[in-house]
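Title: Prediction job returns without error message
Component: structure pipeline
Severity: low
Priority: P3
Assignee: unassigned

Description:
Job completed but the reporter wants confirmation the result is attached to the right record. Sequence as submitted:
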Amino acid sequence: MSELRFDGRVAIVTGAGGGLGKAYAGLLASRGAKVLVNDLGGQFNGAGSDASYAEAAAAEIRAAGGIAEANTDSVATSAGANAIIADAIRRWGQVDILVNNAGVVCASGPLDTVSDEQWETDMAVSASGTFFTSRAVWAHMRDRNYGRIVNIASGSWFGMGSGVPYPAAKGACWAMTRGLAVAAQAQGKDIRVNCIMPIAGTRMTALMGEAIAAIMNRDFPPHAVAPVVGLLAHESAGCNGEMFTVGGGGFARVFVGRSAGYNGTNKDWAIEDAAANFDRAFATDSYTIPNDSFDDASQFPSDVPWDAFRQYIA
């Protein structure tokens, strides 16, 4: 296979001052992309700011022969997200790739100990940040009929005993991926929106102690995640609305399926009827992967014209 390159492309990577984001930015730049390295420079829990992180990461890319500039606007506000997109367009005239990597972990521990402020901080960066930047670049990509958005979710979306806000925020990234992908497809635009769940040693894993952090950095280095981000950011990316778990040199598709279930027609059924058919609804021996919410609904017996409904909503 010939080398997949990004010559002539402009990429924005948020949260790229270190760790995973820095690895994504470095890879894209090494393959020819002009990269806006965005990072507020806050701590992993969202506190503070430090422009040196973005500046240093951009300087490192330039020292390696790539093209990169630093940006320190915050993704957590609409104004900040708009400024990030505008900065890239001002410098290079376009935005082809957006990697929504910025995220924080502010809240952890039992649910009843999480404060309003902690919840809002986690949601503001990972969830709202992904929304704000995607919205800010959407019209630009739509009008140019080209765009690649890679959202960064987390395996915590499967459930994490030590916290709820962070998994909830990352789950929102997956939901936005599906929504944007379906919107682009409905509009007939060459915009691909996909998502990954990275497994890597980062500043957050350092909280688990030196021994575990050392193993994570050895077995799951950040640079081992970057190739899949690069693939999804490339013009050849054919999938849309997909999610992959990535780590340590491997990756796998993650999907939400729907069991064949119980498709009764009695609208006046009772709790006992649901209980009697629970095993059929719960079984996973036969399943489908809905393309959208209407595809899911259409699998129940009815005369609803779901295609017309889909076009009306779009």
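Comment from assignee: result matches the submitted record. The two ends are 38 Å apart (CA to CA).
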